[in-house]
Amino acid sequence: MKREAELERKIREVLKKVFGYEKFRENQKEIILNILKRRDVLAVMPTGFGKSLCFQIPAILGNGVTLVISPLISLMQDQVSVLRKKGVSAQQLNSSLTKGACGKILNDAINLKFKMLYVAPERLLTPSFLNAAKKFKIFMVVVDEAHCISKWGEDFRPSYVKMTKFFNLLQKRPIFACFTATATKSVRKDIVNLIGLNNYYSVITGFNRKNLFLDVIAVKESNKIFKLIKIMKKLKDENVIIYCATRLKVENIFEILKEKGYSVAKYHAGLKLIQRKRSQNYFLKGEKNILVATNAFGMGVDKKDIRFIIHFNMPMNLENYYQEVGRAGRDGKPSKCLMFYSDYDVRLSSFFIESAKNSSLSLKELEAIKQRNYNNLKEIIRYCETKVCFKRFILKYFDEDLKKDCNNCGNCKRKNKFKIFSKIKNSIKKINKRAIIILKKKLFKTN
Fold first, then answer.
1. Per DSSP, which regions of 104-211 are E strands?
2. Is 105 helix (H, G, I), strand (E, B) or coil?
3. CA nearest 52: which of 164, 179, 171, 226?
4. DSSP 207-239
5. Is 79 in contact with 130 (CB distance < 8 Å)?
6. Rounded to whole angstroms, how far apart are CA atoms 203 and 49?
7. What is the CA radius of gyration of the chain?
8. Range of the domain at 439
9. In a domain, 405, yes or no
10. Digit-coded pLDDT (tens) for 356-408
11. Is residue 8 in a domain?
């Protein structure tokens, strides 16, 4: 008991002095305590629930270097930059560094000159890293975006599977802490088995973001721009992300909004790194309040006051969709998430599934992933076409049961309006047909 009380005192001290927070969010303290007790961790926590603190505080207090395996250079750069500003010694290894700079960082790791080292999974099996890793003390290995290791995850990456070879080569087993925002049962099982978590502490934070209003609008592809402009007229001063399925559509919508005088930026993988960084900074700092982007934008981005997220195209699966809408309303204030849905979206997703290639996978593995992607596509089509509460549908997909309708989604709103309409209609016995039509139009005019 004394040891736990002392650990809690230390982590609260770091929480306040380094990160400037007075109290923990849900589950953060328990995760940190378990890591410091040398237990592995699997944490599934939606965007905005403070996953980074859960491994950064133990890394600061731990004895040795913490490796943070991260899939994106921009994400590494942002987190390392923020940590350094807070006085935390952190480094990163990525392809933008020279061979000499990488060598110096690895030498500093051997001499324990910093607490945290961010690396891409591809680098772990390089001879220089393997040789250095045998010489420095690894306190913990953090696997960020851990769903990437599973072939059943929506963003499977073979490099994540290969990194398990590195884990097996380590002379002394470190603590493993795996974090992701979305993971179904089969994905969680893969994470546990492939990484080899032992006696692990598991946290599945509830997926119900009560402040988010979810809705889907079925609209012809040819009418989407008109519908978007109509909506945007009401959102000119709000912070908005508009997600598109293709780079070409991002460019198209960006030019249309820019021409109409909106303060807008664009973000997709076809832009140069400096352009993407500039657009991201414009949006995060409030210099531009509207961002048109592909799903290349968003991982690790911390902007708490996004009020509206519009999916111009239906995402390919519910995992991606719920991770992306989770970027809205991170300050807890009411925020809206709207998805346009058309037959074209289904055809486009099918095209992406059929054209996907990966030279590191066998034909059998590719076929299995294709089948998984089609199953995921069927689920999000069912979501778009359902008449039941959107929240109940999506939470059930993530194995969470919402006991009653949320009353904060498009389907619930329409159902409640229909109840009001029926009640008024039934209570007025002597009313002509024309009056009923007028009443119905007024009540449902926003839809």
1. 116-119, 138-143, 175-180, 201-204
2. helix
3. 179
4. ---TTEEEEEEE--GGGHHHHHHHHHTT-TTS-
5. no
6. 12
7. 24
8. 410-443
9. no
10. 877 767 788 788 888 889 999 999 999 999 999 999 999 999 888 888 999 99
11. yes
